[in-house]
Every structure is written in C-alpha cells, then in structure tokens.
Amino acid sequence: MTTLLVFAAVISILVVVHELGHHLMAKWFGVPVEVFSVGFGPKLLAFRRGETEYRLSAIPFGGYVKMAGTSPVRGEAIPNGFDSKPRWQRFTILLAGPVMNVAFALVLAIVGLWVGIEIPTPNGPEATAIYRPEPLSAIPLGVKAITASTKEILSTVGGLLTGTLSPSHLIGPVGLAQIAGESAELGWRAMLAAMAFISLNLGICNLLPIPILDGGHMLMLLFEGTTRRNVPFRVRKAMLAAGAFAMLVLVVTTFFNDLSRLGLLNQ
User: Fold this and answer.
1) What total of structural domains would you count in the chain?
2) Does position 180 have pLDDT exceeding 70, yes or no?
C-alpha cells in the first residue's frame, strides 16, 4: 500500500508538471483552457479561476488539460481555440509538456547534487559517503547526468525499434511503482533521483511519434506544415484510434514484463 501511495504521489506531481507546460503555453497564446485536472474520473474537489476549472479527480494516476479546440463532430475550429492557432503555436503548446518534464528532471538532478548524493566507498559493499559538489559545479554535473540518461533512453528506444533489444526490457507502471516505493524506503535523496528518472522518461516518451501522444500530434503538424494541407478529420480520428491501440498493446506488454520481473507469472 505504501508503494502504491508513493507512486500515486510521484505520478501526480510529474503529471501536474507536464500539464502545467501545456497550460501555461496555451494561456500565453490565448487558447482558453476549460479544465486542468489532477487525476481522472469523477471530480472530488474543484474551483474556478477565470475561464479554467481546476479539479482534483478520483483516479490519481494521471491528469489532463482540456483546451477549447476542435469540434469532435465536424472538426470545425472554435474561435481562439487550439486548432484556430497557427501551426507553430500549436506545436509549441504540445512541446511545452515534455519540455517541462525534462526541465524538472534537470532541476531535481541539480538539487540532488546540492543536497548530496550517496556514493559507495572502498570500505565494503554497504559503506557509502555523501558527495556534495560546489553549488555552481552541480549545474554542469546535473546537465551531464541528464544528457547521459537521455542518450541511454534514446538508445533503448532505438534498440526496440530495430529489434536489437527485446520488449522485455520495457518497464511499465508496476515497475515504476516498485522503483518509487524502493526509493522512498532508501530515503529522500534516492526519491529525488527516482523522480528525476521517471520525469525524464515521461518527457522523452511523450515525444515519440505515436498519434495519441504529444509527439504524434507534433508529427502531424509538421506534415501539415510541409505539405501545406490539413490532415482530414476522419484520418486524424483513425490515426488516434491506431495510436490508442498501440498504447494499449504497450501497456499490456509492460504490465506482463513487470509481473515477470517480480516472479508473479512463474508461480
């Protein structure tokens, strides 16, 4: 139960960071934001500020920003809505969410170095010491750590796409929950590192060109900008359905991977 609660708290924080990027950039370009929800499902608490209703919803594993945009029936643009804005503005609004997650991971890495990280010593396998660099030195070290982790994530994605890596390497919600729970048991320093790792993964994975993700929508905007033609509404719907199916397959695959790592499928 503790692991589940810790994971819910971590995911909620990271989703707020992600959606805040979309929210702030949408506001910057004058797109009305109708709902900013932490969690899904029935709303538990809500208050309105200006045109936006801020919600705390019942299911804590996620969240969303609802912007005024395209009619779900005919694909007609709403005045000042998302789809009425120039493509470069829509692209920037979509990009802002993943960028916020990557930036948040960098901030956590730098803060983690400022407060000190535990490193092993030659005195034994369980002996550790606190390494705390100079404040200014922590910034380039944090950038170096995030850059190295980004390269590792991209290498993993590339290996999965080319078939050189098995899908069994993928970690799903259960695995991430285990990482969050174990990190919480090790202390708040380990928790900072785990949050940075999950935030970086969330940011980069949202840039993948899968239609239901930010990266997929950004790819469609790039296609439209290059061809000077809008993707037909029915084609968009079909691509989103295909993206949703791909995400479902991915979630199921990672779920079984996590259960296999825990040894629950071999019992």
Assistant:
1) 1
2) yes
pLDDT surpasses 80 at 229: yes
Span of 48-52, 81-85, 127-131 with lowest mean pLDDT = 127-131
Give the containing element (helix H, strand E) for 245. Answer: helix 233-261
Residues ≥6 apart with Cβ < 8 Å to 240: 211, 212
pLDDT higher than 60, residue 267: no
Closest CA to 3 of 189, 191, 201: 191
Mean pLDDT of 143-162: 89
Q: What is the dihedral of CA 5, 244, 81, 27, to 10 degrees?
A: 30
**CA Rg value for the chain:** 20
Residue 29 lies in a domain: no
Structural domain boundaries enclosing 184: 87-261
Within 13 Å, how many C-alpha atoms sit on residue 30's CB side?
Answer: 6
In a domain, 36, yes or no: no
Q: Examine residue 127 and state whether it is found in any structural domain, yes or no.
A: yes
208 near 247, Cβ under 8 Å? no
The answer to whether residue 203 scores a pLDDT higher than 90 is yes
Predicted pLDDT of residue 264: 59
pLDDT over 70, % of the chain? 91
CA–CA separation, 266 and 105 (whole Å): 35
In a domain, 176, yes or no: yes
In terms of Cα–Cα distance, which of 123, 141, 143, 146 is closest to 131? 141
Beta bridge partners of 53: 35, 48
